[in-house]
Amino acid sequence: MEKVQAEVEKHYRSPIVEKLREGGGTLTIGRTTLRLAQQFGFCYGVERAIDLAYASRRVFPDNRIFLIGEIIHNPEVNRQLKDMSIESLPWKEMNEQYEGLTQEDVVIVPAFGAPTSFMDKIEAAGCYVIDTTCGDVMKVWRRVRTYARTGATSIIHGKKGHEETRATASRARGDDQQGHYLIILTLDECDYLCDYIQNGGDRLKFLARFEGATSNGFDPDLHLQDVGVANQTTMLKSETEEMQRRISTAISARDGSAERFQVFDTICGATQERQDALFDMLRAQMDILLVVGGYNSSNTSHLVEIGQEQLPTFFIRDADCLTSLEKIANYDLEAKAEVESDYPAKLFTDQQVVIGVTAGASCPANLIEATILRAFEMRGISRQEVENA
Fold first, then answer.
1. Between 15-22 and 365-377, two packed helices, what is the crossing angle to 10 degrees?
2. pTM as predicted
3. Which of 44, 66, 82, 380 has its CA 20 to 30 A from that of 239?
4. Domain segments of the chain: what residues?
5. What is the pLDDT of residues 60-106, one digit of tens each?
6. CA dist 96 to 107, 129, 156, Å?
7. Catalytic annotation, residues
8. 110, exposed or middle or buried, with CB in 10 Å at 0-12, 13-18, 19+?
9. Pick the CATH number of 45-133 from 3.10.20.600, 3.40.50.11270, 3.30.160.270, 3.30.420.10
10. 136-263: which CATH topology?
11. Crossing angle of helices 187-199/237-255, nearest 10°?
């Protein structure tokens, strides 16, 4: 593991990021100040997953190695694994590749986990299994299994098509596969659910609205009597807490008490730390915020949402998105596509400018460093000046 960690560090570490962190996260050169959030980038669960994936190639140098989907939501990290001849298996549906697995094959389970049907398939094939599932995700699984044992339906705050949510939903069925779940994403969906809990409604309209977000056989007239809330671990904490409050209120209004409502905090610590660190950073004046991470990263998208409430915020994949002083390629959360946006005019004048940078839990430090250097470069400041500052 020492050799593996040295290899990972070689790929992803950043002396500039480490220097900034040690200096309190603020660096001023001339009329340009860059602020780096106190908590950002790789969390322990991500580091562990990457270490195990790298180790798998060292331990099994001649075996075929497969990965269910992506190890984490970062294209740079997944590219490195592909270069190591680690082949990706589909994560939405099993195909003929799963039928061809043998006892000599190695299958890596990503940090998000995998549905029970996928786990059953690879274990039946007798594969070597390298399970990198994050411990915080497993805590959610234990919680929804508890709900199922007590007869409560799991209300899961998350994205129904996300790898982690799919894996959690499969555990919400319980050991006997008799448990039920409902996945909700927005406060509007939560309000619709709460109205149905309190007042009832059209069962078929309910099922149509939540198509693809319920367990097989789910009936809102039967399976909303006892409920427990869980969540995809990377959701916005304040939104999850608001959903918990609204659902508890609806249960109390219907029953006269909240005895048939269960809740447990299942936001992961790293997600919460990065959100809290951004809120702290936003207390100070900044002109622009750059959020670095994979476009399909849930925890990164929530950092963007937080930033957008206060200042121009750009969700960038890496420093290549900062193409010039005039334009930025960034991911638009509403359009769900990369767009090109104008830079605020102030950034290419000689006025004092403050640039904020943060990154999701799946973003390596070398990509954060490249963003910092590019931001300074666009203000006429060289890498050498940053390194010597």
1. 80
2. 0.87
3. 44
4. 13-43+269-388, 45-133, 136-263
5. 999 999 999 999 998 889 999 999 999 999 999 999 999 999 999 99
6. 15, 19, 31
7. 164
8. buried
9. 3.40.50.11270
10. Cobalt-precorrin-4 Transmethylase; domain 1 (3.40.1010)
11. 10
